[in-house]
Each structure stands twice: as C-alpha cells, then as structure tokens.
Amino acid sequence: MATIANREFLDASIRYGARIGTTAVAVDTPLQSGRELSEVGSQAVFKLAPRSLLWLKADAGGHPESRDWSA
After folding, report:
1. Cα distance between residue 63 and residue 61, in whole Å
2. Using one digit for the tens of pLDDT, what is the confidence trace for 22-69?
3. What pLDDT, on a 0 to 100 scale, did the predictor assign at position 64?
C-alpha cells in the first residue's frame, strides 16, 4: 500500500509522488476524462508492469543521482 505524497499535472498525464514504507516513488499515469484523481494523503495500490519500471540509483541523501543523459 502506498501513500500519495503529491500530485502534478503534466499535460496529458498525472505524476503521483508516493511513499511505500520509506521508499519514495514517482508514478506517471495517463490523464483520462471521468477518472477520479487520488488525493494527497490517501492510500493507493499501484499495478505496475515490470517492463515499464525505471530504477534510479540514489545518492547518500536518498535523492536520485545526477546523470548526464546527453552522452
């Protein structure tokens, strides 16, 4: 079970920031007419396709490490 920490609107999608225990995750989902949005502070269950996951290595402070994607 995850707790919704924040929510952002990104054009045709919504990015949810969630906490699963002590782990922070970001989940992008399509914005669909008529679909209810999860409220900040609510509990949620995410069904994730393993092939769609992108894991980022965290620095000592728990933040994603910087990476130069232009190379």
Report:
1. 6
2. 888 888 899 988 889 999 999 999 888 888 887 777 777 766 666 555
3. 65
Q: Which residues contact 12 (CB under 8 A, 6 or more apart)?
A: 30, 31
* Inter-CA distances, 27 with 11, 49, 61, Å: 15, 12, 21
Q: What is the CA radius of gyration of the chain?
A: 14
Q: How many CB atoms lie within 10 A of CB 44?
A: 14
Domain, as residue range, for 4: 1-33
Number of domains making up the chain = 1
Tell me, what's the pLDDT at 62? 67
DSSP assignment letter at 64: B
Q: For residue 10, what are the β-bridge partners?
A: 13
